[in-house]
Every structure is written in structure tokens, then in C-alpha cells.
Amino acid sequence: MAAQTLRIGTRDSQLAVWQATLVQNLLKEAGIASELVYIKSEGDIDTITPLYDLGVTGVFTKTLDAALLNKRIDIAVHSMKDVPTKLAEGIQQAAVLKRASHKDILVYKNEQDLEAIGFVNGEWNEGEIVKRETSNVKGCDQHSPFTIGTSSVRRIAQWLHRYPTNKVENLRGNVNTRLRKLEESNWQGAIFAAAGLERINLRPEHSINLDWMLPAPSQGAIMVVCREGDHQAFDACQPFNDEATALCTKIEKDFLRVLMGGCTTPISGLAVKKGETIQFNGNICAPDGSDLVSIEIIKEVKDSANVGEEAGKTLLLDARTQHIIETVRNGKQ
Ligand SMILES: NCc1[nH]cc(CCC(=O)O)c1CC(=O)O
């Protein structure tokens, strides 16, 4: 069959288009012509309701899945962390691009405010971490609580675990909208994925890496999907599949899936390949930050394929994990 122009489906946010264009350029390098097809997702249309209230996984991916299955497009490009742990029936992973920064960052307004969260002289001052157990709340004055914007249950939970007296406000929309809403608010800051802002040159100077926060499974990675059995589309994507990122994100997604997935549970996970070893760190957190259970597993790359599953299953044996899962279930259903 003569080579056809590959149709790349994408959401129409600036970040989504940037990511789809990256894939288009990579295809071009491999000698494959392609075009972008813009498709609106439910997650983009309703930017008021927090995602955890929409109650469905895959709000960003569903419409593109449908377009693939209807053959309106041949591949779809997603921020991998928005892709449900189980792909839709008839859809397969074609490639995972080399990961950019996996980190969450705080975009803040005033340098002076940072002392309240223990960020002093350009460093996280571990001695100043607010411990839930201590009544003497250091580094976080009860009278001037830090307020941050984010609608991610994972970010809320980890933030409140570290800063129990802080306030969190709902902040939805694509990254451009969220930056604007922060500017218009009276909050001290808001949390973003570094990759999302850096890709489109929007990372403000007033931002710091939240090195202590574990990212969403597969944050910073881009996934390309195609129809199951579409060998032409699948083969076209192999030149830019990054094996290390594919392995690390598989481990992180497995961890999420075993622990129940969904976007309603604060679950974080990061696998990093260092030489011939994989280091995995994961945690599950109570939505109000009152508890956090974490796990670390280090294995040789050759033995690491099931590390995410193993980590998830190990955490499930912990009574505190069970308690967190029950809290989430009872709260949301
Ligand atoms: N849920 C929205 C979303 N999905 C992917 C990214 C950024 C890119 C990435 O994390 O890979 C973002 C923005 C954010 O979390 O701030």
C-alpha cells in the first residue's frame, strides 16, 4: 500500500498541540508525512467541575479513543499521566517518548512567602518541615496560612500532609488558564507539572521544584496510541519509542492499577533508571493528608518488569493503606 499521510489526533490546548507537533516532527525524521486533527475532549469543555467529581477516568482520552476507533485519526498523542491504566478496548500503546522533567513545581507570587513553607536560601529546609505530630507547627504560622491552587487530589494530599494548616483552592483548566487564574487570585501559589510549562516556555521565573513531592505515575511522559492491529501506524512510531521511559512508566502505571487507579485516589509513583538499576518510589495518601504510606524498591533492570505490581501489592497488605482506600470509597460513592 502506498504510504499515506498519518492522521495525528490531538486536543487543541497549546500543550497538546506542542506535543502532537513533536510527534509530527519525529515522524518526519523517519520519513513519514502526517497531519494534525484537532479534537475537543470532555475534560477541556468542562473546566469548572474538579476532575475527581466528573467521576470518570479518561476524560481527556475518551474522545480521541473514539476518533481512533471511527478511523478519523490513525494515532493519538497524550500526556501519559492522563491515560487510564487500562487502555480502551481496541486501542494499543504504539510508543512512549523520552521523558522530560517528572517534577511538580510551585509557581509562587512573592519570594518572602516561601519561608512559610520551609524553602530558605534556595533549598528545602528539612528541619522546618511541618510534622503533623508536632503541635509546635514550625515554619508555617497558623495566623498566615499559605493558600495554594490545585485540583489534583494527589497534590492536595501531599501538600496537606506536609503543611496541615495550609489551604487549598480549586484550580482547573489548561496550563494557560491556570496561570491566569493564579495571577487573578489572592493565593500564594499554585502547583503545576514542570514538563507542561517548560515544553511551551511558560515556566515563570517565580517557580521552584517540589523535590519532596512524588509525581503522578508517568508524569512528564508522552504516549502515542494507535488502533490494535494497525501495523502501519505502530511501526511508524517505533523509531521514537524510548525503552527506558517505557519501562519506568509501565512500572508506575502498574503500581497505580494495582492500588485501584482512578483519579480519585492520591497515588504517586516514580521509577528512575540509574545505570543497570531501577529505583521505584511510590506512595498512597489520605485525601486530607492525614496519612501517607510509602514504599521504595530497587532492582536490577533485568528483574524490574514487575516492580510496580510488587510495590502495589505490598502496600495493599498494609492496614493503613486499606484504611485510606476505604476513606476514599466512602467519601466518593
Ligand atoms: N492533568 C493535566 C496535565 N496533564 C499533563 C500535564 C503536564 C505534562 C505532564 O505531566 O506530562 C498536565 C498539567 C499539569 O499537571 O500541570
TrEMBL record:
Keyword entries, A-Z: Porphyrin biosynthesis, Transferase
InterPro entries from the UniProt entry: HemC, Porphobilin_deaminase_cofac_BS, Porphobilin_deaminase_N, Porphobilinogen_deaminase_C, Porphobilinogen_deaminase_C_sf
Entry keyword Transferase: yes
Catalytic reactions of this protein: 4 porphobilinogen + H2O = hydroxymethylbilane + 4 NH4(+)
GO cellular component: cytoplasm
Cofactor entry: dipyrromethane
GO molecular function: hydroxymethylbilane synthase activity
Record-annotated Porphobilinogen deaminase N-terminal domain positions: 6-233
Pathway the protein takes part in: Porphyrin-containing compound metabolism; protoporphyrin-IX biosynthesis; coproporphyrinogen-III from 5-aminolevulinate: step 2/4
Example GO BP: heme biosynthetic process
Role of this protein: Tetrapolymerization of the monopyrrole PBG into the hydroxymethylbilane pre-uroporphyrinogen in several discrete steps.
Self-association and partners: Monomer.
Protein name: Porphobilinogen deaminase
